Amino acid sequence: MAGVAKQNILLGVTGGISAYKSVELARLLLKAGASVRVVMTEAAGRFVSPLTFQAVTGNPVRTALFDEKHEAAMGHIELARWADRMLIAPASADFMARMAQGVANDLLSTVYLACPSPVAIAPAMNTNMWQHPAVQHNLSVLEGRGVRVLGPASGEQACGDKGFGRMLEPMEILATLKKELQSMPFASKKVLVTAGPTHEAIDPVRFIGNRSSGKMGYALARAFQEKGADVLLVSGPVSLASPPGVERIEVQTALQMYEAVFENIHAVDIFAGCAAVADYRPEHASEQKIKKSADKMDITLVRNPDILAEVAALEDGPFTLGFAAETEKLIENARAKLQAKQLDMLAANRVGEGMGFERDENSLRVIWSAGEEQLPVQDKQLLAEALVDLLANRYQANE
User: Fold this and answer.
1) Catalytic residue list contains 159
2) Does 263 have pLDDT greater than 50?
3) CA nearest 232: which of 306, 147, 318, 349?
4) How many Cβ atoms sit within 10 Å of the Cβ of residue 31?
5) Residue extent(s) of CATH 3.40.50.10300 domains in the chain
6) pTM of the model
């Protein structure tokens, strides 16, 4: 899972003299084991012929948004879905501005907006253009959205000026990509995370729920995404913003969460069941608000499906991480749950007064069949990152 080997890299080429370097970049990416497809702007074609890239990559080069042959099948969406990573090199000042503004007036800008995978750019322009406040503003906007900026380098430019603005050399870009992907153990992997509570309706205004804030599940989704995974977050009702780059499905009840999980589970490599799913739900929910009339009210509860156990029991199912919130006998109860549900890993924590739910910090005891590790009290985002690193080691061992 390291390096660029077996990665689908969509190379975008914009107008500029540095476009000639992108031919060598495409060749190096292929030599490193990547699959490469090229999308060029109209201006890029004035510097390097599309036929040159086609000869190097062995794939047709796309240049036009209104291409009847490809767009009949929504070709720009297919390209965006195909890519494990999008690299725009060179990225001109004009194209960076369009990226920052969300303008989609040609094929490359449209593919960029439709691409759910990580995006990197290698800027190339005159040094005075690079230093202009407008360009620097666009740069900060793109970086704030998670776009990785490679370079530019400093040196003599084609116009004779000297300074920052040169596109990085292809070998430097390749080395940077290799380094980043080696630190992304889940590149090209699909991960499904459940988070938050479920609310089981008693009537239109009342429900049975729990104290889960969803913070750990959301931190986990973000940690997986930052390690290169394509993350789907199935979330119960929480007041949290979706992590950048993470697709989110919102649900209310355990049955809705079950449906959302099993509509998507066969396409994922890793399942992290972090949600505090209600074990029971009212057998019947009143269609109208129940009036306060009697001193006592009986509610019959029925079992909800066990999402975690059913995922773990799938034939050729995903690597499965479960969570256990315990008030007593933490290790004993966690080990029993790990074995009973045949999980690959389980992260257990104590809950109760001042612990676990509705807090920004937590600790975890992570166990698997042949070992365990204690993750100390820390911010939940840092805790999630430590858990993902630990899971990466177990996942690679399983593979």
Assistant:
1) yes
2) yes
3) 318
4) 10
5) 190-398
6) 0.64
| Percentage of residues of the chain with pLDDT beyond 90 | 68
> Domain 190-398 has what CATH class?
alpha beta
Orientation angle between helical segments 93-101 and 133-144, nearest 10 degrees: 50
Asked if residues 368 and 338 have their Cβ atoms less than 8 Å apart, the reply is yes
61-70, 189-198, 265-274 — which is least confidently predicted? 61-70
Cα separation, 263 vs 246, in Å, equals 17
Query: In the CATH hierarchy, which fold is given to the domain comprising 8-182?
Result: Rossmann fold (3.40.50)
CB atoms within 10 A of CB 231: 29
CATH 3.40.50.1950 in the chain, residue ranges: 8-182
Residue 5: both structure tokens together: 């080997």
Ordered alpha helix ranges (H), the chain? 19-31, 50-57, 68-71, 75-82, 93-101, 107-114, 127-131, 133-144, 170-182, 215-226, 254-264, 307-312, 330-340, 380-398
pLDDT in the model for residue 1 = 40
Residue type, 215: K
Locate the DSSP E strands across 204-344.
206-208, 230-235, 247-250, 270-273, 280-282, 301-303, 319-326
Position 320 pLDDT exceeds 70: yes
The residue to which tokens 């060749």 are assigned? 27
pLDDT recorded at residue 18: 93
Distance (Å) of CA 386 to CA 68, 233, 241 = 48, 19, 22
Mean pLDDT of 134-160: 87
- What Å distances lie between residue 324 and 251, 337, 341, CA to CA? 21, 8, 12
Total residues found in the chain within this entry: 399
CA distances from 332 to 324, 352, 367 (A): 11, 17, 11
- The catalytically annotated residue of 159, 205, 267, 301 is 159
Q: Cα separation of 173 and 392, whole Å? A: 26
Phi, psi at residue 46, to the nearest 5°? -80, -15
Q: Residues near 184 by Cβ (< 8 Å), separated by ≥ 6?
A: 227, 228
